[in-house]
Amino acid sequence: MKPRVSLQDSALRNGNFSLRIAPVRGEDVGLYEAQVKYNTEVHSCHVELGVITVTLSPPSPVIGNELLLMSCNSSHRASLVETCWFHNEHLGPTSRTICSLSRTLSILQPAMSHAGSWRCQLRYADKEIISATFNLQILGFDGPTNPVVYAAAGSAAD
């Protein structure tokens, strides 16, 4: 897993034996064990790493007006109850929430208004809730709905 794995040497002296993995990949899923030997004592702990992935088809950046599929998958083993997609949470009138049984969200004609922060939230039968956030980029034009723009002579027009 090198060079994605590191220990903070300065933290070891303070009893922090945390393992850092960056970036996490799907194949990193599993059970991890840490063992610390101090004099004659051996301490250990187990941590299970789960992974959630968000995939786009076609990959980001998305070209406006082409079908967009956003899928959310997790390594969690319980049965999925609900998938919710949150767009631009806490940002006022442009925010939206879409919930369904499917892990995949289809946007038939993505526009510039679909760009921004998206959060996928998976809710499972065992009450576990897992989420991931990503930034969707859309390539396109964000101009006036009316293609005719009037400007006074001598002024600037955008």
TrEMBL record:
Source taxonomy: Eukaryota, Metazoa, Chordata, Craniata, Vertebrata
Segments traversing the membrane: none
Domain of life: Eukaryota
PROSITE patterns xrefs: IG_LIKE
GO molecular function terms listed in the Swiss-Prot or TrEMBL record: MHC class II protein binding; protein tyrosine kinase binding
Ig-like domain segment(s): 64-131
Protein known as: LAG3 protein
GO annotations of cellular component type: external side of plasma membrane; membrane raft
GO BP term (any one): positive regulation of ERK1 and ERK2 cascade
